Structures are given as structure tokens and as C-alpha cells.
């Protein structure tokens, strides 16, 4: 393995830069050239890349986003697009590829693997929606960003004695909402994995009010619906003041937490190590303190287990 490529694809996530840095430095340390492919699969199709040297990844470990850029590419999903991507890899003499991204990017990595390109995936998404790994890169940072927002909203809502709905990201996965709700002391968490009816939410709010609570915080996962619709539903049943906050893209940015920097560094190094050992067609995951590789097709087939205990605990603790 003399030369490998790295690209970031799909939604960006804090910690991707730490992973890129680790891939470049771990590779160079082991006499492997690393090409940084720009703008995801689009750059691969368009042969847009640069050789990465040690200083190209200086001062990026603490930065959110991705220095390689990321784009979505519909063309890559077509036969013609795939052909161009394979031509680029051949032309550039790239023998292995690391793809940092979410499940969509992994499907692309699987296709490249089937075409004989040794490919390794690193899970980069704030959504934590991949079943095979306990955490994805960026999730921890996004969680802390949400907690920071909850703290600020809590200050103003207790002054005004208001209820608040905070809508958070996560696509179809409720992890950001669930863990932010548990860690942030929310009264109610509304996630795609569990149905909760509006009457229950109203009951929790009114019970809290009767106990003298000055505010209540409802965390809503975007996969369930809009904060404004939920507000209207609640207002149609009880007469209270409610404010909505849609956190949006601030959840995707910011300096990565220590956890995400460590995870990015370890996963990046592991990806190169596996390629060096001629192991490929894997995605990197973490469980406990372990970093491991798992077959891409197996990982993509797995169904995410819902943390019912965390959900129950959130309910109990918000009594
Ligand atoms: P994420 O990786 O964050 O889930 P997307 O689902 O948008 O983001 O996927 C990123 C890119 O991966 C897409 O723009 C496309 O180029 C590629 N991709 C997604 N799904 C497939 C697929 N089934 N086959 C090949 N490539 C895919």
C-alpha cells in the first residue's frame, strides 16, 4: 500500500478534521502517501485532490467542519459516475481509500469495495444513527452544543416562567434528543423511537407547574416533526406560554470535544493500520474503549438498538 486517498462525504461533523490529520500523519509515519480528495465523491469523479504533507494538517485538530470539503454527488450513484471515480483512482495510482461520512457514504464505499478498491469507512455524522458503533464522530460535540443551548434557554425561561420546545437534529434517530434530554434535565423527550401523545406532555407540564416548577423543557427530535406544530397541539389543550427554538446548523459546527478528537484520531489511525494489513471493506466502530473494524455490508444491515433504559430514566428523573 504505497498511496491511499481520504475523502469526507455527506453531512460534515466535528472531529472529521482530527480523523483526516490522523490518517495523513499515521500514513506518512509508515511511508504511505496520502491524497486528500476534495468535496467527497464529487471530487473523486472530477479528479480533484491534493497530496497531503505533514503541515497540510497542522492546526486543524481543534476545528469543526472538514478541511477537505464535502458535497453530495448524485452522479456517483450512476454507472457512468462510478466509472469516472474508478478511472481517477487508477490514474492517481491510489490503492486504498478512507471514506469519512454517514450511512449514505458507506453505501458508496461498499460499491467501491465491490469494484476491488480496498475501502475503509469512518462514521462521521452527528446523528449517531449507525447501529454497529456505539458512537459516531461528531455526536458528542453536537450533544454538548445542545446542552449549552438548553442551559441558556433554561435561564431565560425560568425568569419568564415559560415552557420551551427545543427542536434538535438527528434525522430518524432520537439519540441527540434522548441524551441531551437526559443530560439536560428535560421534562419531556419526544423521539421517533417512542410515541408520546400530547395529553401526556400536557400532563407533565401541568404537574410540574403545580409543584412550583418555573419552566419546562421539551426536547423534540426533528424526525418526529416541527416544534411549531407541537406547540400548536399543546396550546390547543392547555393555556400556557410556550416558546420554540430550532437549533439547526449550530449543532453541526464548533470545536470538537475531547471525546471526538480522541475518537477521530484513533479511528483515523486504525483505518490506515487496517489498509496496511491488507484488511479492507470495513467500517470502523467503537464500543466501550475498543476501536474495531466490521464488514461494511454487515454493519449496514444491522438495526440500531434503542436505549430504552435511558428513555425510562429520563421520564423518572423528570417527575
Ligand atoms: P451521509 O453519508 O451523511 O449519510 P448521504 O446519504 O447524502 O450522506 O450520502 C453521501 C453521498 O454518498 C451521496 O451524495 C452519494 O454520492 C453517496 N451515496 C449515497 N448512497 C449511495 C448508494 N446507495 N450507492 C452509491 N453511493 C451512494
Which keywords apply here?
319 residues, alpha/beta, Rossmann fold, 18% strand, binds adenosine-5'-diphosphate
Description:
This protein is α/β, with parallel strands linked by helices and 319 residues long. It folds into two domains: 3-138 and 256-301, Rossmann fold (3-Layer(aba) Sandwich), CATH 3.40.50.450; 141-253, Rossmann fold. It has helices at residues 16-29, 40-45, 79-91, 103-114, 139-160, 175-184, 198-210, 227-235, 258-276, 296-301, 308-317, and strands at 3-8, 33-37, 49-52, 96-101, 119-123, 163-168, 188-190, 216-221, 242-246, 282-287, 290-295. The strands form two sheets. The protein has a seven-stranded mixed β-sheet, sandwiched between helices. It has a four-stranded parallel β-sheet with strand order 7-8-6-9, with helices on both faces. Strand 7 (188-190), helix 7 and strand 8 (216-221) form a beta-alpha-beta unit. The model has no long low-confidence stretch (mean pLDDT 96). Adenosine-5'-diphosphate binds next to helix 4.
Summarize the structure.
By secondary structure, the chain is an alpha/beta fold. The protein has helices at residues 16-29, 40-45, 79-91, 103-114, 139-160, 175-184, 198-210, 227-235, 258-276, 296-301, 308-317, and strands at 3-8, 33-37, 49-52, 96-101, 119-123, 163-168, 188-190, 216-221, 242-246, 282-287, 290-295.
Net shape: elongated
- Total helices: the number is 11
Task: Tell me the name of the CATH class of the largest domain.
Answer: Alpha Beta
User: Order of strands across the widest beta sheet?
Assistant: 3-2-1-4-5-10-11
Amino acid at each position: 500500500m504505497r498511496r491511499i486517498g481520504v475523502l469526507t462525504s455527506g453531512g460534515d461533523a466535528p472531529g472529521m478534521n482530527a480523523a483526516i490529520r490522523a490518517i495523513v500523519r499515521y500514513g506518512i509515519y509508515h511511508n504511505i502517501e496520502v491524497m486528500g480528495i476534495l468535496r467527497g465523491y464529487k471530487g473523486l469523479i472530477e479528479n480533484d485532490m491534493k497530496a497531503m504533507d505533514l503541515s497540510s494538517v497542522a492546526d486543524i485538530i481543534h476545528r469543526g467542519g472538514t478541511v477537505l470539503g464535502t458535497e453530495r454527488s448524485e452522479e456517483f450513484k450512476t454507472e457512468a459516475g462510478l466509472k469516472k471515480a474508478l478511472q481517477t483512482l487508477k490514474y492517481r495510482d491510489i490503492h486504498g481509500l478512507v471514506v469519512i461520512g454517514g450511512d449514505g457514504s458507506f453505501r458508496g464505499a461498499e460499491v467501491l469495495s465491490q469494484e476491488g478498491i480496498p475501502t475503509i469507512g469512518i462514521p462521521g455524522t452527528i446523528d449517531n444513527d449507525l447501529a454497529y458503533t456505539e458512537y459516531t464522530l461528531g455526536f458528542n460535540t453536537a450533544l454538548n452544543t445542545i446542552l449549552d443551548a438548553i442551559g441558556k434557554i433554561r435561564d431565560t425561561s425560568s425568569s419568564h416562567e415559560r415552557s420551551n420546545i427545543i427542536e434538535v437534529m438527528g434525522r430518524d434517530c432520537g439519540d441527540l434528543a434522548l441524551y441531551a434530554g437526559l443530560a439536560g434535565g428535560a421534562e419531556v423527550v419526544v423521539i421517533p423511537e417512542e410515541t408520546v401523545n400530547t395529553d401526556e406532555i400536557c400532563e407533565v407540564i401541568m404537574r410540574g407547574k403545580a409543584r412550583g416548577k418555573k419552566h419546562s423543557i421539551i426536547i423534540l427530535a426533528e424526525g418526529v416533526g416541527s416544534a411549531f406544530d407541537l406547540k400548536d397541539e399543546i396550546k390547543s389543550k392547555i393555556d400556557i406560554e410556550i416558546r420554540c427554538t430550532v437549533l439547526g446548523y449550530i449543532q453541526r459546527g464548533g470545536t470538537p470535544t475531547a471525546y471526538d478528537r480522541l475518537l477521530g484520531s484513533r479511528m483515523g489511525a486504525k483505518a490506515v493500520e487496517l489498509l496496511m494489513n491488507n484488511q479492507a471493506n470495513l467500517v470502523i466502530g467503537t464500543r466501550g474503549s475498543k476501536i474495531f473494524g466490521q464488514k461494511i455490508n454487515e454493519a449496514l444491515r444491522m438495526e440500531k438498538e434503542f436505549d430504552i433504559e435511558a428513555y425510562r430514566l429520563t421520564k423518572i428523573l423528570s417527575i
